[in-house]
Amino acid sequence: MTKPSILGLSGSLRLHSASTAILHGLASAVADKARLDIHPLSAVPLYNADDDGEMAPVSVRELKAAILAADGVIIVSPEYNYGMPGVLKNAIDWASRPAYSSVLKGKPVLIITSSPGATGGVRAQIQVRETMAATLSRVVAHPEVVIADVYQKISDGRLVDAAALAFTLGAVDSLLAEIDLLAGRAADR
Question: Which of 70, 111, 112, 131, CA to CA, is 20 to 30 A from 84?
Fold first, then answer.
């Protein structure tokens, strides 16, 4: 059986982004059971309905193709001013077109948020969940993954905190089970 393909989307464009570090940590930790590729959002322009459809910019077509090719998606978002960053919302807006039949429809999605504060991005988590509900994606039924004090849990550009990684990997297992369910495979995980 081939390993499931997971697409990672980081809601931060920073060079040393905690969101991207979380994805790198997960990619290493799940390598034996899934392939996790991180797709950058830095080239995705601001959404403009005039440029949508067949005229969409190359970076948008690449994003949609990557989502379509993936068995599931992991979105990792920081919390900016009690919500998700504009870059992430913008990418979701592009990917959610055409409405009700986009590449996100029916796609298993795991949402992870983090912050340097004590709440772990819980307010951004709610906002991302509401937005993903509008895309008709299948947000994984698992307790919310919020990583508080995130900078204390990252080393060398990867999530390394044992407790945070273990809880997050449990959520990834739920994503993989959802992927198996949709593929009609018995979950061996």
Answer: 70
